[in-house]
Amino acid sequence: MNPQLVFIQVSAVLQIAFTLCASVDALWFHLYKLRLHARPETRKEHVLHSANACLFPITLVFLYCFNAGGAALWAGIAATLVTFGIEIVDVGHEKTSRAGMGGVSAIEGVMHFGMGVGRALAFAFVVASKPLDAFLLSSPWVLATAYPDWVLWMGRIMFLTALPMAALHLALCAPRFSVRSRAPQVAPQAEALRGSL
User: Which of 15, 142, 167, 179 would you call most buried, defined as having the most Cβ atoms within 10 angstroms of its Cβ?
Assistant: First the structure.
């Protein structure tokens, strides 16, 4: 078998594992249990997560939905590198944003480490699956060798599920979902209650 086709399939398996872990991390820990979007001290962390959630569909399209080359491949590479940059900023910010919660929990820390390694390896195998001339800007956007069908379907399904996830993150960036934004509405009621006592 063509080694490049082996590499993209290894990358796809790693991407599936990463996405499953990332979904649990985002939906259970970040949005439901910790409600990072609603806490003033973690709003910036949620914004960083939202930026990554918006970049994720782009990486899926250009790295897994077809065998990209040229400018299309570089679009996927650029989106992935920006994602890595945001993750580095996020890790540094978590030290202060999570201080009031006792820091990042042990299980979430292990998940973050595993997801970081998994995503980096998935990206490395994607890059390794490309012939050298695929990195030329003059290369066609769609390379002659097609990905295996299951990889293409994986990319498409993940892309379609990543879109609502990105939309949810963006929606929760709205000020009305912040605890701070609701405080002025509660204050007059509390004042009236104190005055009646």
Answer: 15
